[in-house]
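quick one: nicotinamide-adenine-dinucleotide bound model?
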Amino acid sequence: MSAEHSSPDPSRRRLLAALGAAGIAGMLPIARARASRPLGVALVGLGYYSRDLLAPALRMTRHCRLAGIVTGTPAKAEAWQRRHGIPDRNVYDYTGFDRIADNPDIDVVYVVLPNHLHKPFTLRAAAAGKHVWCEKPMAMDAAEALAMIDACRQHRVQLAIGYRMQHEPNTQAVMALATSQPFGRLQRIRAEAGFHGFDSASGDNWRLDAARGGGAMYDMGVYALNAARYTAGAEPIAVTATSSIQRPDIFRGVDETMRFRLEFRDGVTADCATSFGKNMNRLRADCASGWYELSPFQAYEGVRGEASDGRRFDAAIGTTPAQQARQMDADALAILERRAPRVPGEEGWRDMQALDAIFASARAGGKRVEIAAG
Ligand code: NAD
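yep, here:
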């Protein structure tokens, strides 16, 4: 154990103080009561994001560490064990995953699988008594998202969604403007998130498969949608959306480009776009007496922007994967301190509600669809 891991941890002291004050230590699940070390995280799905971003980020975190892996590929497991020093007892395949319930090394299960597997693995992790972090988009639709929230509530574990931008300081500065409104009433938002990719349909790519949650809207569109909601500081009430495909040989049954206009109360609108065919990365708010924007607004580093009064959003947090480390440390502290995470399941569910309406509008050829008030 490193000196850092064995030194008195302020979060541990805060936790004990809170427990003593509340007299509820005996009620806590084992994983939460035993917090004298960083929380143990098990990554489920060892693809690109786990390998290149989350595992390296977990080497930078203070309040959590990579303790386990869940994978369907034995060769990957071996390589990860060697690289990250993961003992055999903390390695699971998808079938035997539920045995994780008996593993005291694992406090948090981080679901980093294709989108159609977010719900089943969240339900299984919650049933195993583990806190859950789940990648975006939270689920395939709002009903799945609600089931995930309910399961975590029922098993008294936390659920946080991997919307890393909400842990980024320049994004947080822009989010705060929704309340302080230094440029008067917000009038119009524009949010665009996309990239040019997928030059062929060859191979088994779940991002091109509707049944596994493929398409630009699920993948990149949620950044624009989430940004529109945090920039407005309000929930959209209706949407009109159009989906288009420029390369039908590649995009079969999933959207390549989606444009959607969200309507908020008081006439505020958000014109949003996402695409797998075009690079776009900008968030802008036009207000009664000024504007502000971030470009890029969603990136692993270098998020920056400015406002019409000359202010700049240019705080730096270090190189990739500092953002993911911030997110996981913040979510770990929320568990240790027994408070809600910054981006709880409900935040993902709100996006899924809007996303259901966006898909419904696009299917109906751009008809206006109201978004259920949840
Ligand atoms: P990936 O394709 O690189 O990895 C997916 C992993 O899931 C692979 O290890 C694969 O073997 C495994 N898997 C298990 N069952 C599968 C199935 N039925 N089909 C396909 N793969 C299966 O994907 P990724 O880029 O790592 O994305 C995983 C999740 O992380 C997605 O939800 C994605 O939206 C999210 N993600 C988030 C960010 C972010 O910045 N927050 C970035 C990238 C990906």
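The domain at 169-316+353-370 is CATH 3.30.360.10 (Dihydrodipicolinate Reductase; domain 2).
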